[in-house]
């Protein structure tokens, strides 16, 4: 019997792909771009992601869980698809390596300021290689186990109950904000990654619960982000949130235990698990695309090669500011891809269905 990723695996895989370092600055972005009661924007963006997932569900239903590469191959000649696959490979690998570099930069900043970024990134990439070479089924199982190490952090919200004040909220909605549309696109990067599930369709269970599990994963991410951002708006003032680099880390620093010093550093370390899954899925998706161009290439060698080249490219952004600027522009393209690619596939599938009807007639 062929192994499959079941609904629970898909749900937690989507949650782990979406959840990442962007969550640390999400409250600041909501305060800067949306102003008062900016936490409402999290629910709006979660809803937008949910609509996009519906498009993915339409693709899955129309193609019957077939690979997106097979769908493209049926309608497009190979000299057209090869450049597309190469662009997918490069772009997805770039996003993955920059996401990993961002985590390493922040980790070095708060925990190991004298450590070599080069060495930390090399160790991180080794973990990614070990994960990706095990295949998508083991990535799904790892995401299920690692999610337990992340989900418990939501219960830390109870630690702020005594200092949460509704007086810091405002009866006005989205006042003192600016550039809301640009801010929404920037913040949507926190929800990005669910579109990779398009590449997972052939490996997933064929039941109708498939797309529902993707929606559930997105809902978990939305509620997790909403909880942290809502608490941040009641814990800090609006002006404080606007000048904080990583409000979530500053809030976690409030928690003090007699036997642990700088607890926020320890809690940030747990994000390593979700970042490894996120980067692993981007690299795995890049390998899926590259495999269509080089079908006879050894898969493990391909993984090592893509990670190695990505590692060399990630050296170029030297500072955290440069890195986040590059990542911002990459996520603009990813947002366009997450909406445009499903629509493109739907168009191809409609043309194929019409051709089949004409052939029968």
Describe this structure in words.
The protein is mainly alpha-helical and 361 residues long. The protein has a single domain, classed as Amino acid/polyamine transporter I (Up-down Bundle), CATH 1.20.1740.10. It contains 14 helices and no strands. Helix 1 (7-18) packs parallel to helix 9, helix 5 packs antiparallel against helix 14 and helix 6 crosses helix 12. The longest helix is centred in the C-terminal third of the chain and has 41 residues, at 320-360. The chain is globular.
Mean pLDDT: 87
Instruction: Give the overall silhouette.
Output: globular
Radius of gyration: 21 Å
By secondary-structure content and strand pairing, the structural class works out as mainly alpha
List keywords for this structure.
about 70% helix; about 350 residues; mainly alpha; Amino acid/polyamine transporter I; single chain
């Amino acid at each position: 019997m062929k192994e499959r990723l079941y609904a629970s695996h898909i749900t937690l895989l989507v949650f782990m792909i979406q959840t990442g370092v962007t969550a640390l600055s999400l409250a600041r972005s909501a305060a800067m771009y949306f102003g008062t009661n900016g936490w409402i924007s999290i629910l709006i963006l979660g809803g937008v992601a949910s609509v996009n997932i519906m498009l993915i569900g339409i693709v899955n239903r129309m193609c019957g869980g077939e690979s997106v590469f097979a769908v493209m191959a049926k309608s497009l000649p190979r000299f057209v698809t090869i450049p597309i696959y190469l662009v997918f490979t490069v772009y997805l690998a770039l996003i993955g390596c920059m996401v990993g570099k961002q985590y390493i930069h922040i980790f070095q900043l708060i925990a190991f300021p004298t450590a070599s970024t080069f060495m930390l990134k090399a160790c991180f990439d080794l973990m990614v290689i070990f994960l990706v070479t095990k295949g998508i089924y083991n990535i799904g199982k790892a995401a299920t186990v690692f999610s337990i190490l992340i989900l418990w952090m939501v219960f830390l919200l109870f630690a702020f109950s005594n200092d949460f004040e509704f007086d810091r909220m405002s009866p006005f909605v989205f006042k003192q904000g600016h550039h809301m549309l640009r801010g929404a696109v920037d913040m949507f990067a926190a929800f990005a990654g669910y579109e990779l599930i398009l590449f997972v369709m052939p490996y997933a269970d064929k039941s109708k619960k498939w797309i529902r599990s993707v929606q559930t994963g997105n809902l978990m991410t939305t509620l997790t982000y909403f909880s942290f951002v809502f608490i941040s708006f009641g814990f800090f003032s609006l002006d404080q949130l606007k000048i904080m680099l990583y409000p979530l880390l500053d809030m976690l620093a409030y928690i003090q235990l007699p036997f642990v010093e700088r607890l926020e550093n320890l809690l940030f370390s747990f994000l390593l698990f979700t970042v490894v899954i996120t980067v692993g899925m981007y690299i795995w998706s890049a390998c899926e695309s590259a495999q269509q161009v080089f079908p006879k290439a050894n898969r493990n060698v391909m993984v090592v090669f893509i990670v190695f080249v990505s590692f060399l490219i990630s050296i170029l952004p030297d500072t955290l500011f440069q890195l986040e600027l590059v990542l911002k522009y990459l996520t603009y393209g990813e947002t366009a891809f997450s909406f445009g690619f499903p629509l493109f596939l739907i168009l191809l599938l409609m043309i194929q269905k019409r051709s089949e009807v004409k052939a029968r007639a």
